[in-house]
Design goal:
about 60% helix, 6 strands, mainly alpha
Length: about 220
C-alpha cells in the first residue's frame, strides 16, 4: 500500500475557512465582484448586452457551477468531520484523531503549536488534549526552556491508536485515488492550477475582511 500524505481533506477545510472568513459578496443573489476576470459587476437580472457577450455569461455560469460543486464537497467533508469514526475498534471523532496524528508526527509539540496548526482556540485545543490524556493516549512533559509550556508525546497505547488511524487514512486515500483512475494526469495538473488560482482569490477575500475588521467594521 502506498504512503498517503497528511490529512485527506485539509485542503478542502482550508478553502472553506478562506471563503467563510472572506467577503464573498451576493453569491446567492446572482451578484458577484469578479475582479480577477476583469468584470466589474455581474447581475443575472441586467441586460445581457451590458454584462458582456454570451460567452462571458456561460463562463460565469461555469464559474458558479465550479463554486457550487466545491461547496457540495466541502459540506460532505464538514459532515464527515462531525461524525464518529471506527479506527479498527477504537471510536474517535476526527478532531481527536487529528491531535493524535499531529503529536505522533511531531513528538514534543506544544498545545499552542497545535492550536495554530488546526486554527483552534487554545481553550478548545486544551480541552481535546485533556480528554486524550484522560484516556492515557497522550502524556506531557514540562518544557525545559519554558516552565509554562508542556511538550506532548504519545503513550504506548497512543502509538497503537496512531497506527490504526494511519491505516484508516491510507485506506481512504487509496479508495479516493482509484476513483480518479479515469482522470488523466493532464486533467489533474489543470485542476491543481485552477485550485491554486482559487486559493489566491480566497486569500484576497480574507485579507479584505481582516482590513475591514482592523478598521472597526461597517459604520
Amino acid at each position: 500500500m502506498k504512503s498517503w500524505p497528511g490529512s485527506q481533506y485539509r485542503l478542502y477545510r482550508m478553502n472553506r475557512a478562506f471563503r467563510e472568513e472572506g467577503i464573498r459578496k451576493g453569491r446567492n443573489t446572482g451578484k458577484a465582484i469578479l475582479t480577477n476576470t476583469g468584470l466589474s459587476t455581474y447581475n443575472k437580472g441586467s441586460n445581457r448586452e451590458e454584462s458582456g457577450a454570451m460567452g462571458v455569461d456561460k463562463r460565469y455560469e461555469l464559474f458558479c457551477e465550479l463554486l457550487k460543486t466545491m461547496d457540495e464537497g466541502v459540506d460532505a467533508i464538514d459532515e464527515y468531520d462531525s461524525l464518529l469514526h471506527d479506527y479498527q475498534g477504537t471510536i474517535l471523532y476526527q478532531a481527536e484523531s487529528q491531535i493524535i496524528k499531529a503529536v505522533g508526527d511531531q513528538p514534543g509539540i506544544t498545545a499552542s503549536e497545535l492550536s495554530r496548526e488546526f486554527h483552534k482556540t487554545n481553550s478548545a485545543c486544551s480541552q481535546l488534549i485533556r480528554k486524550l490524556k484522560k484516556k492515557e493516549w497522550i502524556r506531557q512533559e514540562r518544557n525545559e526552556k519554558n516552565n509554562r509550556e508542556y511538550n506532548l508525546y504519545l503513550t504506548d497505547e497512543g502509538k497503537v491508536i496512531y497506527k490504526k488511524h494511519e491505516d484508516f487514512e491510507n485506506a481512504c486515500y487509496e479508495r479516493t485515488y482509484h476513483m480518479l483512475d479515469e482522470i488523466s494526469e493532464e486533467e489533474m495538473r489543470t485542476y491543481i492550477r485552477i485550485q491554486n488560482q482559487l486559493n489566491r482569490a480566497f486569500k484576497l477575500d480574507v485579507e479584505e475582511s481582516r482590513q475591514l475588521s482592523g478598521n472597526g467594521g461597517a459604520d
